[in-house]
Amino acid sequence: xxxxxxxxxxxxxxxxxxxxxxxxxxGDQHDSCRAATVAAVPERLLTGEPNGADGQWAADLEVxxxxxxxxxxxHAADARRPGTWHRPEESGTxxxxxx
Length: 99
Known about the structure:
4% of the residues lie in helices and 31% in strands. It is mainly beta. A hairpin with a 4-residue loop joins strand 3 (59-63) and strand 4.
């Protein structure tokens, strides 16, 4: 991983294991957090803007159970926004369920 003061700091690496915070099922009081693997890091976002320009990186993920590929998933270090990914150490827990 690049140094903290590098322009590439925080850039996810292909093959890195991260957590994906899902949107949860209707009526579910807990958002589901699932293990995911970074499949790709696009150079540009769907908007055409450069990826990582604002210090936040979007990644294409392979999320475990269900086996689905999510593209352009934004990063959220606070681990509390549905539809985002974060590193396990950023959430303060290794568990796959945050509530």
